Amino acid sequence: MNNSIPFIDMKVGIAEIRTELISAFERVLDSGTLIQGQEVESFEAEFATACGVKHAIGVSNGLDALTLSLIAAGIQPGDEVLVPGQTFIATWLAVSHSGATPVGVDVAPGTWAIDPTLIERHITNRTRAIIPVHLFGHAADMDAIRRIADAHDLFVLEDAAQAHGALYKGRPVGSLGHAAGFSFYPTKNLGAFGDAGAVTTDDDALAARLRSLRNYGSTRKYYHDQIGYNARLDEIQAAFLRIRLRHLLKEVDQRRKAAAFYSECLTGISDIETPLEIDWCSHAYHLYVIQSDRRDALSQFLLQADVKSLIHYPAIPSRTPAYASTSASDDVPVATRMAERSLSLPLWPEISRAQIEQVSQLIANFCRKS
Ligand SMILES: *Cc1c(COP(=O)(O)O)cnc(C)c1O
Q1: Which strands form 281-282's sheet, in the order they lie side by side?
Q2: What's the CATH number for 248-369?
Q3: CA of residue 211 to ligand 1 center, whole Å
Q4: pTM for this predicted structure
């Protein structure tokens, strides 16, 4: 009676809000405005409130949110930016696109975010910024990071692309650095129906530069103050995002309950480690990631039973061909081990307890047999 289980199933969640989505779509059609109109403005205000900040600036995707934030903060060629040794590649790409050099710092076991105790040894007279990533939905230790950044006058940019709805000591991610970059790629905790992103910040001047940068460096049509980009958020995506935002906290809560049930079902299986819950973090469970020495065999075993798992991420950025010819250090043992051992299990807000039991039972069978 094994049923196939996808890695993620978005159909149920979308069906639940179908009528709301269609009326949002019709509202945009009827408005006659498709770029930079009322929907974007309203979404920006609503998302800023959700994150507890003054400004949200809608942009085209998460990579642009990070890249434009660095450029708006004045990061330029010759500068160095500290990034985690393991993250989705876009964190590193944003630094490269700003012209600066990414410098990998190892991550801390458990949070999988940049290890605050290792930051200072990587700071040189060229270091200008640091990008903590709230990987998998687990907040980085922001107080420790801010203390070091303040002492060295570094710009702190949160990469919150996987952490919509996560809290750090009760405060929402997106409000913990000088700015934060979000992605609304469809499978993220808050997903659009295509590519979309946003930057959040309390800094008025930075927000103004970002609004100009995303729109050809212009605040007044055909007058250009800086060398800008076309990196805007579409009205239609903003209209959809306003609806999904209303369901975000409920869905994050469903993710937390599913994760708690996984951890309950998986306790006592000695060959795997389940995700850590550190008391200062309210984990948003974008991904439920276990660790196993026999990760590849386990993933194959699940696949044979028609259960899809994924690896986030099989190679650390400094060992990808994209960065192979650079001088990026790959002396990041925790990140390296994590790339060898991480396995993400099926998770979406509406995943059923029966599905979680089925996956967990297969993992127990695999570990017993071998
Ligand atoms: C998804 C993601 C990004 C990039 O977002 P896009 O919208 O896909 O460009 C950046 N950082 C992390 C950690 C991500 O997971």
Answers
A1: 171-172, 167-168, 281-282
A2: 3.90.1150.10
A3: 20
A4: 0.97
Which residue has its alpha carbon closest to ligand 1 atom 2? Answer: 161
Mutate to test the pocket of ligand 1, among 61, 88, 158 (most ligand atoms within 8 A of CB): 88
Q: How far apart are CA 130 and CA 103, in angstroms?
A: 9
pLDDT digits (tens, 9 = 90+) for 181-204: 999 999 999 999 999 999 999 999
3 state DSSP class of 149: helix
- CA dist 257 to 127, 161, 192, 347, Å? 40, 21, 23, 11
Q: How far is CA 140 from CA 135, 181, 218, 303, in A?
A: 8, 14, 35, 32
Between helices 18-31 and 235-266, what is the axis angle to 10°? 160
Domain ranges of the chain: 11-105+112-246, 248-369
Give the integer Cα–Cα distance in Å for 289 and 310: 9
Domain 11-105+112-246 annotated CATH 3.40.640.10: yes
